[in-house]
Amino acid sequence: MLELHRKIKLVKISVGIIASHIIMGIFQERIMKQPYINSDGISSQFALPFAYVGVQCFVYTFITVGIKLIYDREKNETPQKYFAMPAIFFVLAPVFSNMALKWVSYPTQVVGKASKPIIVMILGVLIGRKSYRAQKYVSVIFIIFGVIMFSFKPNYQESESENLLYGNSFIGLSLVMDGLLGALQDRMRSISKPTTLNLMLFMNAWSSLYLVFPLIITNEGIDFIHFCLTHPKIIIDLSVIVTVGTIGQFFIAQMISNFGALPLSLVMTVRKFLTVFLSVIIFGNELSIIQWIATGVIFIALVGDSMFRGKSSESNESSLETLETDNYDDTKKSNLKSVVIHNHDPTEFVKVIDIVDQAVPQNSDCIHCNESTKKY
Question: How far apart are the two ends of the chain, measured CA to CA in Å?
Answer without folding.
Answer: 31
